[in-house]
Structures are given as structure tokens and as C-alpha cells.
Amino acid sequence: MDAREEVLARIRAALGPRRERVEVPRDYHRQPPEGTDVVALFAERVADYRADVRRVTAACGVADEVGRVVRELGIRSLVVPVGFPDAYLSGVDGDGAGGRDHVELRRDDPPLSTAQLDDSDAVITECAAAVAETGTLVLGRDQGRRALTLVPDRHICVVRAERVVGTVPQLPAVPPPATWVSGPSATSDIELHRVEGVHGPRTLVVLVVGC
């Protein structure tokens, strides 16, 4: 008997005779309480994570708000995934004028290198879905490569109200690979000192549209 078998034998002896399998009840709730405003709840939970949450009443106002965010944060280079709506970028001066407010739109086609992503000020995406109870953004294949939202220091995410669900069990299927984002990237050391931007963007701006 090798060491592995000896350890397993001791575990079996300690557990005693084999018992019948016990079924664990899975009666957790699968939807929020009736009457819950899931969009408002999502905005509240995302803000709890220290994200900058902004409400936009109609899709036609997204471009203006994106332009406002870009100017406020001093963004000069913005990564844009394949398939991102150009209409949302019309408020950004990316026409090549080269003026003080000019922003370089770095489209991921062909794919940008890691060095180019690291040198970019921010990335802008939509999301495949969002969860109200957990304040979570779910990004799938249609939102671009995973590296796009992990390397730049700022992430602007446009969330359509109809894509917000109440709970995780209500999430639709999201084309893999899926990235789940709950607020800006942050961690704490053993003394509970919060450090942001360790595993991804330290700044997250969420534009909730159609609310």
C-alpha cells in the first residue's frame, strides 16, 4: 500500500459505514420579488461596487454621454471591439482632426497587441446580459476578446435595460468565453487594504440605457 492508498483508507475508516445519499433541497429563489424594478436594483448594486453608474433615458442619448465620459476622464485612446455600434461613438472626436479633444479610436480589427491594449486609456463595450441582484455584467464573445476588457485601465460599458435580468438563474445563454464583471477590479490584502486595478480596469463606467 502506497501513501495515497493509506491516506484514503484512513479517511474511509474515519467515515464509517457507507450511508444513503442525502438529497440537498435546492429551493433558493430563482427570480426577484414581484414588483422589483430590476433596472433600478442593478444600478444600485453596481454603484455599491464603486462603479460610476449613469442613467440614459433613450438610445439616442448614448453618444452624448459617451462623449461626456471620454472628456471627463481625459481619454485619448479608446479600444473598440468588432461589432460595437458606431452610432454610440458619434459624440467622440475620433475623425482624425488631431485637436486637443481628439480621441484615437483603436478598433480591434486586426487584433490589437497586448502592448497596444496596455497603452490604451480605455475600452468601450456593450454587455450580453446583466444581473440586478449581484450587480454583474456578463460579457460574451459578441463583446470582443476577453483581453480587451482586462488590460486597459478604464472600461465603459453600455447596458441596455432589456438585457437586465433579476437573478443569475434568469440569465440567457451567453456565447463563450464569458467574462463576469462585478464592479472595478479590486482586491484586499491581509490587513483589508483595498487595492483597485489588480486584475482588470480600476475604473468602470456603466451607462444604463432605456430607463
From TrEMBL:
<dbReference type="InterPro" id="IPR024185">
    <property type="entry name" value="FTHF_cligase-like_sf"/>
</dbReference>
<feature type="domain" description="LUD">
    <location>
        <begin position="116"/>
        <end position="209"/>
    </location>
</feature>
<dbReference type="InterPro" id="IPR037171">
    <property type="entry name" value="NagB/RpiA_transferase-like"/>
</dbReference>
<dbReference type="Pfam" id="PF02589">
    <property type="entry name" value="LUD_dom"/>
</dbReference>
<protein>
    <submittedName>
        <fullName>L-lactate dehydrogenase complex protein LldG</fullName>
    </submittedName>
</protein>
<dbReference type="InterPro" id="IPR003741">
    <property type="entry name" value="LUD_dom"/>
</dbReference>
